[in-house]
Amino acid sequence: MSEEKNALPPEGPAKPAQNLEKIASLSSRERLLLPLTFGFCLLLVNTLLETGPTAGLTAAVCAWYALLTVCQGRKLLIAGESRFLLATNLVLAATLTLGSNWYFRVWNLLALLALLPIHAVGLSGGQRLPWWRPAMLWERFCLLLWGLFGHLWAAVAALLPEKRDSSARRILPLVLGTAGAVILLAVLVPVLASADALFAAATADLRSFLSLHFSDAVWKTIVAAVMTPFFFGLLYFLRRPTPLKQQAEKPPRTVDGLGFAIVLAAVAALYLLFLGIQSAGLFGGAAYLAQKGLSYAEWARSGFFQMVGVTVLNLSLLLAAVQWSRRTGAAWRAVRFLSALLTAESLVLLVSAGVRMTLYVEAYGLSFKRFLTYWGMGMMAAFLLAAAWKVHRPDFRFCRVVFPLALAGWLVINCVPVDCLVARDQVDRYLAGESAALDVEYLLYDLSYDTLSQLRRLDQSEIFRCGSGSFSLGHLVDQRLAEARADCADWRTWSLSAWLASRNGT
Asked: What is the pTM of this model?
């Protein structure tokens, strides 16, 4: 199927019959998936739902792909899209075990919550749009919901025996009866103990033992059992997808490019004026800014975030103009010329923002957000270069290149020791006398354990303000080391960053 045909809008799949008697018998592999799915849900409850995006989630992601391997077999590695998303998700999951920066952990969790369903639904074959198409988000979201909530009966069907003899028919009632009895006993025994003192005294030891060893496990098991039909239904859907309904191909809509040309010309003229004034500040130096009543540091720290936002707007505008303009006549030639001019101006704006950010860092030092701003400006420059190629070759598929590029860029920044670089810059400036104060609280508690190696370069007896009191640096570092050792004591929160910090602190 061509990519143009893939652009068809999604429609809901036809609903299967809900009568269990009409359901096709499940294969042995599908029946095997049910206990494996329950085990995965139990792992998910004990990791993500209890400790958050830490090493436990790494194990859960690996377990999820083990489930997909049982479910889909070699299909997981056949398509290039699947291989790329598999590698991306595994690397994202691995970063949760390697690093301890909670900014990265939260953003990587959000990325995994988006990319794991996109990858899984893409393995079903029920979708029409490739993963790099923006419109596929809605399509795969609908398919995901249908897989999760439209096949709850599949778990019940997996429990039913394939051969309906008298002994096999008792399997489902046995499972449901046992589960119901455990739940009722867990609720009724505490209620009866509170209602009668003699019963409470007689069962005190038993209730203490169960509460100590089994209460938490029982509730985790119940939560996992509730989650299992949803995940098993999704896996069943991946093996037996209901293809989306096909529609007649519709030609792409285009409009007269004159309107876009007018907008592009106005924006390009405004940026020429803006860049002319910016150049006066860049080349005029502190003396020129003093005449305007501005200090060099004040001018440097203003506006770079706005410049990045303006660049995003410019990129969206020129892509819309090139994509939707009718590709004939003088208006189309004007759109291409003005789009190229706007791309060049946007690159100059990014350079200007980078220069001002550098001046700000030289005056105030490096921070985590400033480092990410550098990374963001570099990614925007790469996107603008891709947009310039789109202007040169209008049939170039921009998103097909930019989406993998964005994911690759995010994986790269996850592998850079950002916190260590920030701490080293701050400590170097403090030791050199370029900075009169050091924000120890920020370095210790807002960033990861990677900053400890740099803070040990300072005098450990020096007093720093942290929170509502003042403490010696050695005391604060020892507290942070204790947190690192506590993280390493539980496999679910273990990280290479915490392990290295605790090892170097001994």
From this structure: 0.81
